């Protein structure tokens, strides 16, 4: 896969330079009378997240006339308010953390660590902006593609309105993404609060950041701002963090964050928020700790909501589930012929990599005669606290429920040479194996480079090769990867 600033390019040869026809449309409202005849396209792509531009590029290379519609930021969440800007912040926070630890390595930096949030934000904006510019230029350079700026609504099957323009196509691809879920919490309308996108606009350091939600977004931002110097409290209503993962993973993550000085409240139900002068107070109902937590900033990290509520899906008869996610089949087709849904809005994956894979599935079926399916995809994701977590396949809970005879191998990072050399020995390697087929069922690598190392296991799972292929491999010393074969050589029945 070719990439430019982290944005995958499509297959095929793309022509450069926008056509005169397209140039007259880009950036304008393209107002038309209410009774105007719809402009006919071969395809309409609504949304420019990870899968949308790639699909438009593939259709452009095939000579199809395509309308691409974006109501806000080209590139979607990943480029503008997700992976790229947040992981840029993770890198800045890690730099501050390692400078504070310099003495552990025999290095004297002299004086306290100072974080200049305006420069941190400027770096983040520059890197994110480069990606946004890259995607925008890419779309605008597609010869047969018109880019419309505005909010799209379905008028019926095959018909889309954007601003005052009416467009029609036999194929419509919905790639509208998701947004932060804002709960119906008493008092929330009376206080200022942040979401994953709003917090990226901060160029000052919160004195005390309160995070509601103990999963991926909340934990990542919590550690980022703790390392920048903020006091941080994370409130989670459940009994443990990242409940989708195994208990040993949750416990280890909690230990890492607590060690860095983050206050974590579990089994704590938020019942009300209120102003306290310039601060915000969060009232919690829980067995431990104070019943009211007062901080300078409040971050809501309580899940995501698909951007489907104002899309006019009912006019086209497109079915959604109870949470608003568009229902799709194994080829990402909706219940309405000629309409597909890709990316976060279909509920079949909430990651940049699954969105791009959605594009690959649709393109393979439409252009290559290759019946690729969503069900062929192995779950995989990362948690980008530091050290990171790389997760693939089944969890222990899922493996037990499968009814298989399961073997497990586990090694702490304290036994990994690379981790010891870096004095970063938090975490562990864990692999689950089917005792009968010898296939790898799942793995969790929490620790230095865990998000990279885990792919060796993921690739083996896609190959459906026995675990012995990896167990007998000779890996380079000293690396994290060299402990993966060792872990697989010590499998035991899962208790």
How do the helices and strands line up, and which of them pair or pack?
Blueprint (H helix, E strand, L loop, with lengths): L2 E2 L2 E2 L11 H4 L15 E8 L4 H11 L4 E5 L5 H6 L1 H18 L16 H24 L4 E5 L2 E5 L2 E4 L2 E10 L3 E3 L27 E5 L3 H13 L2 E5 L11 H13 L3 E3 L3 E8 L2 E7 L6 E4 L1 E4 L3 E3 L6 H4 L22 E3 L10 H17 L11 E4 L5 E5 L2 H6 L4 E7 L4 H5 L6 E7 L5 E7 L3 H14 L4 H4 L11 H6 L3 E2 L2
Parallel strand pairs: 3-4, 3-8, 4-5, 8-18, 10-11, 10-16, 11-12
Antiparallel strand pairs: 1-2, 6-7, 7-8, 9-17, 13-14, 14-15, 19-20, 20-23, 21-22, 21-24, 22-23
Helix pairs in contact: 2-9, 4-5, 4-6
Structure characteristics:
495 residues; alpha/beta; FAD/NAD(P)-binding domain; Enolase-like, domain 1; 3 domains; seven-stranded mixed sheet; six-stranded antiparallel sheet; 24 strands; 29% helix; globular; disordered N terminus
């Amino acid at each position: 896969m070719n990439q430019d600033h982290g944005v995958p390019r499509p297959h095929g040869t793309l022509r450069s330079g926008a056509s005169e026809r397209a140039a007259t449309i880009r950036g304008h409202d393209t107002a038309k009378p209410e009774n105007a005849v719809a402009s006919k396209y071969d395809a309409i792509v609504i949304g420019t997240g990870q899968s949308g531009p790639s699909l438009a590029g593939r259709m452009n290379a095939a000579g199809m006339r395509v309308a691409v519609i974006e109501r806000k930021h080209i590139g979607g969440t990943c480029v503008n308010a997700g992976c790229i800007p947040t992981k840029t912040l993770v890198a800045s926070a890690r730099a501050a953390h390692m400078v504070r630890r310099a003495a552990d390595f025999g290095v004297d930096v002299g004086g306290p660590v100072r974080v200049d949030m305006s420069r941190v934000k400027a770096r983040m904006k520059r890197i994110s902006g480069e990606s946004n510019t890259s995607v925008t230029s890419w779309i605008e350079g597609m010869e047969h593609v018109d880019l419309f700026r505005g909010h799209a609504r379905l008028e019926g099957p095959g018909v889309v309105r954007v601003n005052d323009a009416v467009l029609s196509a036999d194929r419509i691809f919905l790639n509208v993404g998701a947004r932060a879920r804002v709960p119906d919490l008493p008092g929330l309308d009376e206080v200022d609060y942040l979401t994953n996108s709003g917090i990226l606009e901060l160029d000052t350091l919160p004195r005390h950041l309160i995070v509601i939600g103990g999963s991926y977004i909340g934990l990542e931002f919590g550690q980022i701002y703790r390392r920048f110097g903020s006091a941080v409290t994370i409130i989670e209503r459940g009994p443990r963090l990242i409940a989708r993962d195994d208990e040993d993973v949750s416990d280890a993550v909690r230990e890492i964050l607590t060690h860095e000085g983050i206050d974590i409240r579990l089994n704590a139900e938020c019942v009300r928020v209120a102003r306290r002068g310039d601060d915000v107070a969060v009232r919690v109902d829980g067995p431990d700790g104070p019943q009211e937590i007062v901080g300078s900033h409040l971050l809501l990290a309580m899940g995501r909501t698909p951007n489907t509520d104002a899309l006019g899906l009912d006019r086209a008869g497109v079915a959604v589930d109870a949470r608003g996610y568009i229902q799709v089949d194994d080829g990402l087709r909706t219940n309405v012929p000629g309409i597909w849904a890709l990316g976060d809005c279909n509920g079949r994956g909430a990651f940049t990599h699954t969105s791009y894979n959605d594009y690959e599935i649709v393109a393979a079926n439409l252009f290559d005669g290759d019946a690729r399916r969503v069900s062929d995809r192995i779950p995989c994701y990362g948690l980008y606290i530091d050290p990171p977590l790389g997760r693939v396949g089944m969890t222990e809970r899922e493996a037990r429920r499968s009814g298989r005879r399961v073997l497990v191998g586990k090694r702490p990072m304290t036994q990994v040479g690379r981790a010891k050399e870096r004095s970063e020995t938090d975490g562990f390697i864990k692999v689950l194996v089917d005792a009968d087929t010898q296939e790898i069922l799942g793995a969790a690598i929490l620790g230095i480079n865990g998000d990279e190392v885990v792919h060796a296991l993921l690739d083996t799972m896609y190959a459906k090769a026995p675990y012995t292929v990896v167990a007998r491999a000779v890996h380079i010393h000293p690396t994290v990867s060299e402990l993966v074969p060792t872990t697989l050589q010590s499998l035991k029945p899962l208790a």
